[in-house]
Amino acid sequence: MTVTEATLPRRLISTPVAGPLAALLLACLFFGLNTGQFFTGPNFSLIIQQVMVVGTLAIGQTLIILTAGIDLANGAIMAFGGIVMTKLAVDSGLPALLAIAAGLAVCAGFGLVNGLLVTRISLPPFIVTLGMLNVVFALTHIYSAEQTVTNLPAPLTFLGQTFRLGQTNVTYGSLLTILLFLLFAYLLGSTAWGRHVYALGNSPEVARLTGIRTRRLTVGVYTLAGFVYGIAALLLVSRTGVGDPQAGQTDNLDSITAVVLGGTSLFGGRGMVLGTLVGALIVGVFRNGLQLMGVPSIYQTLITGILVILAVAVDQLSRRRNR
Amino acid sequence: MTSPQTPVLQARGLVKRYGHVTALDGADFDLWPGEVLAVIGDNGAGKTSLIKALTGALQPDAGEIRLDGEPVRFRDPLDARRHGIETVYQDLAVAASLDIATNMFLGRELRKPGVLGRVFRLLDKKRMREESARHMAELKIGLRSLTQPVESLSGGQRQGVAVARAVAWATHVVVMDEPTAALGVKESGQVLDMIRRVRDRGTPVVLISHNMPHVFEIADRIHVQRLGRRVAELSPGEHGMAEVVAIMTGALQVSEGKAVVADQGAARAIGLS
Questions:
Q1: Does the keyword ATP-binding apply (chain A) (predicted)?
Q2: Which residue of B has its CA nearest to A213?
Q3: CB–CB of A192 and B140 under 8 A?
């Protein structure tokens, strides 16, 4: 009987983030060699700003995908949260912090409803969130009366403000996004709750039989994801400076793209939230780099699509080899 | 079997109906300290229902369960586990992508002492690995690393992890549902060895199995379930395999410890008459 610890290099190679990270570094190297402006502080700050909203949405998406679910409604929930925050603060004259709290609560509430529908009525997450996508999209347009909300009070745009880091201006929102990723990496990797999320995604029945309260856990995950979408709403509002009912319409799929590129399995139970950060950055780096090289934006979308298929194909092939 | 002790786990007159179907029809059950008890029965005999009732996975409509002589009622599997009854479920034993130590402690994680554990809920992975290693060593399960995901293990090793976890937490009883069903010859042998070691440590084992050679190799006693009841308690030393199968299928009946032919045709068909 020998029990040995896997050595650090081996663990680095075997971690599911290794592949995406290598892809990200290669992409950075490629764009760095091909464009002069790529490797600059301001450019990196820009990339992070561009990915922070989808990245934050993708944190919630990661949680749900780890439980073998999927969330098609997260972009819509975020848009609604943004409208709630801005309308309450601007039109209803609520104190801005209270309006933000209300927006966060509403987003968490939609997550709770999703979680209850998934667990209590045993509906597939795909169907629940597809329905919720339409419901929330409609609510957003009804509540906002198709109007963009402007003239936001300071607390709503605070996260869009910058502080100086050396020569570079960094937004508080970027910092918050990074901190959120680290927080969830800790929760998923180093707490019992995180282990239970993985176990649930592996097999709900195994998790239940080991004494994990799987329903409560699932509802908690959806609710927490909803709350994170609320934070994404605040990031979105502070980045654009308006409450926009048209916002976030493709962000649900973009967040799934980030999760998949980050090496998380859509079948649940496998993956890491830091991989999602890497996945979001891959999309951001490609868009940014191609733009710097003068490639039209529609080709950026084309390449993102190819990347997703490539990433999943590589993942599948490597897994087949391991068997 | 006569013993001055009380049974570790005992049931009297368990009944479970699902609509018109009677899964348990007054089933009795006795598990004595330090024994391996095999539970056998044809499909639909009520084996699974019996085991589920004993491990809290279903609530019997009538009847009584006693643990160490005390009446108990298990609300759910978790409740049974709290009473020291651990079950290794067929195919449902481990979370595939998690490592061995995590699986060993799933649902019972250890946290770091002090503020780190209390406030930040930080897991004590090192201690969980060490204790897992100790448990695995006790059952002589050889593994390269406790940090490898369970899905990278062979079927036998995986079953080993499940058994080790059950044994680590079981203070009263370990129940194993078809632990060798999916395994090859060599791996089955390893699991049977493990079951022996569990018994030798003093924890009684309930083994549900279809595999008669395995049952005869390892069981101290055999509980035969048929038509929702216990129809016999046999000792493998006193009854042959064909005879036990005949009792299981109803070709023979047991009265006052003697096997009696109940169904001439069936008995002759399997070479007993």
A1: no
A2: B107
A3: no
